[in-house]
Amino acid sequence: MAGVWRIGRVLLGALAGLSFALMLLPIVFVSWLSFFKNELLAFPPEGYTLRWFPQIWAQSQFAQGFATSLEVAVMAMLGGLVLGIPASLALARHAFRGRDATMTLLTAPLIVPSIVIGTALYIFFIEVEIATGWPLAGSWASRWRTSSSPFPGPCASSPRASSDSIPRSRRPR
Question: What DSSP string describes the chain?
Fold first, then answer.
């Protein structure tokens, strides 16, 4: 029986390694291509250069997109710190009515992937914009809210939070 478990572990590890390789291979390949000297993709490359990296800032769309992403990231980080740290301290140090519900709300971003939450919120903002005429889909509020959750979660924020602060029904078995 131990041999079957060992084969299963090896197969699971191989499958996990293959999955990671398939996800990371495009990133590695595009990174390698970014150093090619050729203006058009050709193999083998004529050589390698760093000249493309300074030129990217000359494109205003990239620079504006990068600046917007940076602003949204800073806003999401600050929102997460302002809301997450006090929430994690309250959950770790105090027992109160609604503690389990609050814990569930704050740990939901860890359970539900951010892409799903962001897509759902974006669709919600578009529907509200269509119904009311308010320009929400491109507003700072929707960008900040759909970029990531401002709640980093009590387990990540508080040094005193542990598995004891997680409701028994939510603990892994």
Answer: -HHHHHHHHHHHHHHHHHHHHHHHHHHHHHHHHTTBS-SS--SS-S-B-STHHHHGGG-HHHHHHHHHHHHHHHHHHHHHHHHHHHHHHHHHH---TTHHHHHHHHHHHHHS-HHHHHHHHHHHHHHHHHHH----TTSHHHHHHHHS-S---HHHH-TT--GGGS-GGGS--
